């Protein structure tokens, strides 16, 4: 059984230290256009992060079993050599892009991911605001498993990707050199991803690399000041409500749906989708959503 260090767990003290240092930096100087920190908001983000540590342990059991079965069925094997690791990380980042994009455009997936977008602030503590229903991403990495990448390697590559993304959740870093901004995900790109303006919605899905967004037409540069949060903010710091509010909204829409086609739409179409009013032959609206909270980035 392959084992790799849990780099996320080992990094938690560094995460907390950097959050404290960023908070102090706001006390020393804060630009007019920066949102900064809020006590209740930060506490919620930390609570969501702590909760995700425990819930992820539960989700890992069925996911590991499914991956192990698929890995046993495929005859392919990818050796972990010095030259193969960059390719594995590249392939993982490619799968992450599609997973992330899918979690924005499919409502039942968005119900999990919306947690990460629920803060109206953008700082390092926001990076720790993670969902408690983390069983929605694993299918996007099946191609890696079937391609012969060991499940433990896939998990480790995912941790590397997640670790990279911590530092890009900040307003304290302006744009980086042009060559870096062209290839890699940066705080500037990720601020756009967390913004709620219409032109910024569903943009910049990349994890480590921003090239996928440039290739597949989802890139948007940072221009106007970003307004963070959801298009309809939930107005609560209760971690339980933050974790499950969109599932509640989905259940409400399913109960009110008139047909099975509408129920499928509430589950698998975009977060803002609503069926057209009776007698209206027009296309169903996709944004904004009336009751449930919608994307923001």
TrEMBL record:
InterPro entries in alphabetical order: Fatty_acid_hydroxylase, Sterol_desaturase/TMEM195
Pfam family for this entry, one: FA_hydroxylase
Transmembrane segments: 7-28, 57-74, 138-164
Places the protein is found: Endomembrane system
Predominant location category: membrane
Disordered: region residues: 271-297
Name of protein: Sterol desaturase/sphingolipid hydroxylase, fatty acid hydroxylase superfamily
